[in-house]
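Blackboard transcription, Thursday session:
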Amino acid sequence: MPTDSEGRRRIVYCVGEEHALRDILPEAEAAALLSAASRAGLRGVRVVDPGGKALWGSGDDVPPPGEGDPRRPILLEGEAAGSVVLPAGAAGGETQDALLALLADALTAMAHNNLKRMLVTETHTEVVNRSYEELLETNRSLSASEQRYRELAGTLEIKVRERTEELSRAMARLVQQEKMASVGQLAAGVAHEINNPLAFVTSNLRTLKKYTERFLDIIARYQRVFEQGGVAQQDRDDLRKHRVSLRLDAISEDAGDLLRQTLEGTERVRKIVSDLKGFSHVDEEGEAPADMNREIDRTLSVMRHEIPAGAGIVREFSPLPVIPCRPGAFNQLFLGLVRNALQARQEGLRLTLRTGVSGDRIRIAFADNGPGVPADLRTRIFEPFFTTRDVGKGKGLGLTVAYDIVTAHGGTIDVEDTPGGGATFVLQLPIRRGSHDQIR
Amino acid sequence: MIEYDSEEQRMVLKFVYYGPALSGKTTNLLRLHDLLAKEGRGDLMVLDTKDDRTIFFDLLPFFLVAPSGLKIKVKVYTVPGQVQHDATRKAVLQRADGVAFIADSRRSEAKNNAESFGNLERNLSIVGIGIDKLPLVLQYNKRDLPDILPEEEIRRTWGATGFPVVLSSALEGWGVVETFRALAERAYDALDRRYDFTGTHGLTRGSFAERLVRRAG
Ligand SMILES: Nc1nc2c(ncn2[C@@H]2O[C@H](COP(=O)(O)OP(=O)(O)O)[C@@H](O)[C@H]2O)c(=O)[nH]1
Ligand SMILES: [Mg+2]
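(Written on the board underneath:)
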């Protein structure tokens, strides 16, 4: 069976089969007509095919027809499909000619009608059979697709469940990122709000310090005058008593320290606020040159309160070249890595932060002494949607975010074993990047 | 072509009159039967007619012999125009050597013409005939009726396709033989390329057409 361009079986309909005279005229019908003709005077009449071979005769005992014998064509679709022949020696004449013509016409008409009937039957059969085949074919392809859908339906449920889990994790991740972003913004906002009063508090304190020095200076002068006897003994005693009761000597000594310490305090507040602002990097658009050592320190200073007293954070920094990057993103990344370490081991955590240059890359390693990452999970922990904790429940940012930040920068992040136990996350960042992914 | 037997020196060609129901396909064959000489032409077979609409199809056969002795039978079929007879249409269209598309010129029939032509295109592709390779002639019939598409509009529509367009009134008997001749000539060109009618069989384009459209005396 032929096939179409898509490989489906094509069902061929065709009518118009060719037939020979022998197939169209049944011998019984022809023979009856011939013997009647014979009785009517055409003794020995017979039908021959186009090649001259005798097909049917009248049954009379006569010699075979010859070339010159009188004959008339039997027409089939305009073509002479055979002839009626009257053998030589049979009585000729006008009557015989007319009878012969009549016989030929009768056989032509008979053939025409039979052909018509056959054609109707052929068409009908053809159309019915092919329509049936077409139905079978349709049925076959329907069964095949039904089978396909049945299989699909089976796996669909599992796929939907998997996809739903992925989506809810992605959703949680987004919420988490959103939260981080808004916390950053909030921090920046608070920092900005604190900066204003802090500025005048600091400035006023400095002024007050100067004023106090002057107060103390004039008090000291008054005292000298009093002591040298410039006033009545009575008043002098009074003042001395009062001075003692006010503990002015101690206060005078203390006032300077107090103000100096307070100014140190405001300086510290100022630094925290500036770190907070620097950490959130909301002021910065896109990339800025950054020293990774400084960014790590900045992260640590913001996280100070999170780090338990027993935890040991060791900084093994080597000087690093300044590289253009998105410092805010890297602060988030460092924060996430430190938090991971804090979660990896509750007590006795020792986290070594090591930086250095290796070839054309900056290498930053965060080595903890926690349980480590099993070998079979090492590549998977950076995959999107992979987590051993539920995102949003743990405090970490998720390693996928870390992965995204590092790859966006053109670097790599891997996890190794810490010698003696634990996990070491290693970041490698190119010092120089292709011009196309430089500052946008 | 339904059949070609080089040993027997015989060839059976198929021409198909296609078009919407009642556009005048049967009338075309009736007129050809009346107008053309009895010699070399068979009788018209009108198969299974009910309510004057062709249920199966009509067949008008022609027969001619080329100077080389090649016997050529040309079977001219009509298809049933009714939508439900698509299987019969496909069976008739299969291995066609040429198609005359009979359209009804009346404006009211424009949609039926278009649908039937779309059906022809679809069925040609189903039976594996490329419409660009098929000898195709268009006939706008019933020109004797009022409210018909003007000739210039028809020529504008079909001009770019290169298909010959013949205007006719099968009822009045004109344009019918011209359509058949145009179809015969187009089919001849395709067959000549394949079977070398002129060289091998001594059959020229003119004599092929002439033998098919010999007028009754
Ligand atoms: N006025 C007019 N009527 C026509 C013409 N050709 C066919 N008809 C009529 O249209 C009707 C359908 O014709 P027919 O040949 O049976 O259509 P078919 O379904 O395409 O075979 C008949 O009543 C015909 O007499 C024509 O040229 N002019
Ligand atoms: Mg008809």
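Lecturer's comment: The interface with chain B takes residues 2, 4, 10, 12-18, 75-79, 112, 115-116, 119-120, 123-124, 126-127, 130-131, 134 of chain A (CB under 8 Å).
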